[in-house]
Amino acid sequence: MSMIARRALAEFVGTAFLLMAVVGSGVMASRLSPDDAGLQLLQNSLATGAALVALIVALQPVSAAFNPVVTLAERALGMVGTRTATALVSAQVLGALAGTAAANLMFGLDAVTVSTRERTGPGLWLGEAIATAGLLVVIFGTLRSGKADRVALAVGGYITAAYWFTSSTSFANPAVTIARTVTDTFAGITPASVPPFILAQLLGGAAGYALVRLLYPLPATSAVVTADRKVPA
């Protein structure tokens, strides 16, 4: 199997399990705590953050972005080529959809059900931009500080917190956003709500990329070597 194929497979598997954690824990939380939205969010955020830590640790030696915005930032930083980035983003979206379908089936639901949970408004869009910008700073700031072995804890901790401090509960990921349209559960989002969410994520990603370049002005070759040796993607 080629390196690109291995990376794409890792992204597919990792993103699928991430969505199983997001959607599955949302369903479980709704069933265990049907009258307490705050407790539901706590359960959902803890499960998602813990799953992210585990998945990044396990798949980091191959590829562990699980997020098209992260992969696009890697492309902009020269860490991956266009062909590789295209393969990884495709795998992330397909993996997210597969993971959502699997989560639905695990809980006795139809594999695909279009969500009716509307999430819209300037506050939520701003929350998505901020969540995504912060995520990129956390990931690439940790990498450029020479602490690639701590990325998993940094990302898991950040996403768990961002569930609570952002109005949108921090989707911060176009693949996750698309996949959550096919589950009419606690984690769902209506298809009509998706375009502005993704636009906000891309704008936040651009802001995060700019911050990384300003805060960590390492020579490009040094950044690439560090990334390629420790967190290939």
TrEMBL record:
GO terms for cellular component: plasma membrane. GO terms for molecular function: water channel activity. Keywords: Membrane, Transmembrane, Transmembrane helix, Transport. The keyword Membrane applies. It is a multi-pass membrane protein. The chain crosses the membrane at residues 45-73, 85-103, 123-143. This is Channel transporter. It comes from Pseudarthrobacter enclensis. Belongs to the MIP/aquaporin (TC 1.A.8) family. InterPro entries: Aquaporin-like, Aquaporin_transptr, MIP. The keyword Transmembrane helix applies. Gene3D superfamilies: Glycerol uptake facilitator protein. It holds the Pfam family MIP. It is found in: Membrane.
